[in-house]
């Protein structure tokens, strides 16, 4: 039985919650860096994301890790990472879990 795109997206989110920003001890998803996850009917995934700062010194490593981990999910044929800076990231994008982790709640 084939997995639904919703199930695959949930698996991708679970994986993204295991990738951490090296400067802030919170995962990329709860930081609010993942803006959108789209998937077509043949397994191509497009993740639109940002970084906490445009000059992030580990940007290439983070983008590569997001792509590589996404492509390990069964049902994903390939992943494209679309890096954007509009809207720019700010602390209002943190999830409640991230706020708790950072002592902001």
Shape: globular
CATH architectural name: 2-Layer Sandwich
Gap between N and C termini, in Å?
43 Å
Please provide the count of β strands.
3
| Domain unit count | 1
- Rg (C-alpha, Å): 14 Å
- Name the CATH superfamily classification: Fe-S cluster assembly (FSCA)
Largest sheet, order of strands side by side? Answer: 1-2-3
Query: What would the average pLDDT be, to the nearest integer?
Result: 93
CATH topology tier name: GMP Synthetase, Chain A, domain 3
> SSE order in H/E notation?
HHEEHEH
Beta percentage is 15-25%
Structural class: alpha+beta
Provide a quick synopsis of the model.
With 105 residues, the protein is an alpha+beta fold. It is built from 4 helices and 3 strands, in the order ααββαβα. The chain has helices at residues 5-16, 28-31, 59-70, 96-101; strands spanning 34-39, 44-49, 78-83.
Outline the structure in words:
The chain is α+β, with helices and mostly antiparallel strands. The chain has a single domain, classed as GMP Synthetase, Chain A, domain 3. Helix content is 32%, strand content 17%. It has helices at 5-16, 28-31, 59-70, 96-101, and strands at residues 34-39, 44-49, 78-83. It has a three-stranded mixed β-sheet. Strand 2, helix 3 (59-70) and strand 3 (78-83) form a beta-alpha-beta unit. The chain is globular.
